[in-house]
Design goal:
With 576 residues, this protein is α/β, with parallel strands linked by helices. It is built from 19 helices and 16 strands. Helix 11 crosses helix 12 and helix 18 packs across helix 19.
Amino acid sequence: MKPCLLIPIYDHGREIPGVLEALAVHGLPCLVIDDGSAAPTRNALETLAAKHPWVEVHRRERNGGRGAALKTGYRLAQRRGFSHAIQLDADGQHDPADVPRFLAAAAKDPEALLLGAPVFDASIPKSRLYGRQLSRGMVWGLTGSFQVEDPLCGFRGIPLAATVALLDATPTGDHMEFDPEFVIAHVWRGTVVRNLPTRVVYDPMGLSHFDMLRDNARLSWVYTRAAFALPLRVARRRRGPDRLPVSPEFRGSPPAAPEPGGPATGGRWAQIDEVGTAQSLRIVFGMARYVPRPVALALVSVIAAYYTLTNSEARRSSRAYLERMWALPEGRAALGRAPSLSTVFRHIREFAVALYDRMTVWGGVLEDLNADHDGSEEVFEMERAGQGALVLGSHLGSADMLWSISRRHDLRVNVVAFFGNAQRINAFLESLDPEMHVRVIEIDPDSVRAAFEIRACLARGEFVVILADRVPPKRAARVAETTFLGAPARFPLSPFRLASALGCPTYFALCVRTGDARYKTVLRHIGDGRPVPRQDREKRARELLERYTGHLEAWCLRFPLQWFNFFDFWELDENP
């Protein structure tokens, strides 16, 4: 191992002499990267370089930002033949006495990225402390782990070969956003992170180059881009380089509930791969747990705006749905004005907020969730009597809130999904709350196993939930055409045929957001539990479908921005 010291500097001419004097005892070469400092600091550095032969000053003629200076320093250090750089700031906040601890850790684990874990005293401004907590939560969520104790501390041990390779392959920012972006990129590449506690002191008279407006905006943009980049990386890793990753944001979250269908184009929605690994499932959960709700919702709006502007397919699908809604008198009353880009943004933001609230509820973070019930009393009575029921939900609102109901009222809920990852989803839900009474039943269109599982659940007095507004992604799937929001559309017939075959009580259900952290659950009885003769089951299934779509249309007209089917639902293909 051949280490050096690395210090980026910009106009800290008053503090740098003391920093170098304290570092002299360690006997290491030191590279000082002057990021276009003014004359006083330039002159001070010339004097110090002449005084200390172990100090080399490299000057950048124009100020490019902290990230630009560090990238220059890493590459220069590698060209000088060094294997590691112990990085400190020039403002005197870091304790030079901790350098030997960083050196020992680098010698023990040469490929690890060493990060200072600040131990602050009372000198730290509260705004900085809260900002660091926010960044910690974001990085924990984006990396899917808690291995990074502080992504902003400038006291670090840098493995140069891995770092320069990363910088050559990964675009990174040039300003204050570089520090957390650099850490996230290393973790994503599989670099081991070690945290070393170190004392950090804020000088109330010290010079800070952190711009509260611009640098916070840059940090927010880094976290926003990383939130979108992670699912794409996961998708590429799982699919291999020859498969093009498609938009994961509308399918990369944990399942709202069962996904028994897609558009009538033969299941095009199902071609959008489920990329919700345990790591990406925890992105929003990490933000929900560690970021204050007002800040998180502001970030959710930024993400929704970014997605609105960059995802043309989602934008077109949303606009088509909103224009269909606008064509109806009730839809015009609900929307208030003709659909526009701002209406599309509100539609997509509503989905993003619903996704965020899912994780807060699943993880027990949003304990003060307010839920109003409309029609739930009958279901609670059935649960007390030990009688199960088939509950047909939709992509209107957030069907995940049924979990909140199950936890509060001790209901056992089973959701039916076309995923191929039910085992992973169940494990994730159980990791959030071992007492959770929600289980995913995976449907294999080529097997009847799920039907027997559903029958067994109902016999135990449990509830089985199916989202019945997407056509299954199989050519042989039974579909029925009906009028929905004024135009012909295809719906899956299988859930309704199942209800008629099992002869079980059947309900229409939804859960819509009526305000911040406030939801309304709605249940409507659409089918009793009387047995149906085999020859009448098809007719009964279509009757149930008509009742279901009637309720769905009525509630869509009341909450038009909460129907989250982001594809052309009314596209009727001749070969579904």
